[in-house]
């Protein structure tokens, strides 16, 4: 048998400790027997009755089996001292009905053959002499004629969010950063999730596509979002998980809607491009450069063999994506980018899937880390400086590549510096 846990939504605690709450009242429950869970779903104090719900509203217990009626009492801490003694000895150990009833502010109703639940609130449980032991202020009880048994209550805390990581994580500085994520497929979806987890202030999600069945094995979004626009679904999904990050969704195509993107870039700190086509990556590089904003481009090359994250900062001696690729070609390295035109595949005969989802997530997470580090370095957090600008990661050993793609082993990483702009570059040159 599993221990029963009672859940009290935070509103319930407020109604219980209110100065005009009185010393007793009634409660109702919803329960899930297979989980050993009981939700306190209604509480009546001396002023009124209140429905209580778990956050989010979709929590299954909110519509769980009705669990009957019970009572709550304000009690002396001594009763919770008893609760501590009996629960420590196991759930089969109880106190007698009379011993329990004697410590209540009001006569206890006969539990009959079935028994009922009670909730007790001991405001002085954290004061001497009870402050030495973990005596709780709230306790639950199963009241039967034979004995009264204790159970634990977990109270929903006030939301405190990511600020509780201060000062170990620079939450305040990241709260003012806006990142535009272009492409929220497998890599971009993972990157956006990671960025929200880092406590970024604002995310602008840009992608014109819908979530379809073939996406599912390599996407952070679950099945219930099938058919929705990826940006809308990801916004809702992340709002559920990371309430600290403000998220805006745009069903734009970075190539066809370049004017709209240009306008959005005014309010963007960094652009993170995670699309797998050549044209959107070039467009992102170009638009970011012209807007004077850093761009991070993440992709997986060589049929899933190599992960790559390039950081393009709009500095006079740092070239754009095309300049970087041209410099590699001049050094004798094959440009891996055109193969990206085939993307990571849809699983059809003509378009087989190459990279596995978790490898794409790995690169998405790295891209998010590099994006956040770029923002933190700009804010003066030099502990977050990156070694260089162009990261390649071995996902599988690939033959026939030259530097910086000749990684040799799974797990090898290499950082290469930026290369200067070409004299005739239409992106890096004066407009
Ligand atoms: Zn250039």
Question: What is shown here, in short?
Answer:
The chain has 431 residues and is α/β, with parallel strands linked by helices. It is 25% helix and 23% strand. It has an eight-stranded mixed β-sheet with strand order 12-11-10-13-14-15-16-17, with helices on both faces. The protein has a seven-stranded mixed β-barrel with strand order 1-3-2-5-7-8-9.
Please explain how this structure is put together.
- It holds the Pfam family ThiF.
- InterPro entries: ThiF/MoeB/HesA, ThiF_NAD_FAD-bd, Ubiquitin-activating_enz.
- The structure is a single chain.
- The longest helix is centred in the last third of the chain and has 22 residues, at 357-378.
- The protein is 25% helix and 23% strand.
- Strands 12-11-10-13-14-15-16-17 form an eight-stranded mixed β-sheet, sandwiched between helices. Strands 1-3-2-5-7-8-9 form a seven-stranded mixed β-barrel.
- The chain has two domains: 5-155, 3-Layer(aba) Sandwich (Cytidine Deaminase, domain 2); 163-416, Rossmann fold, CATH 3.40.50.
- It contains ten helices and 17 strands.
- The structure holds zinc ion.
- Zinc ion is lined by residues 319-320, 322-323, 421-422, 425, 427-428.
- Zinc ion binds at residues 319-320, 322-323, 421-422, 425, 427-428.
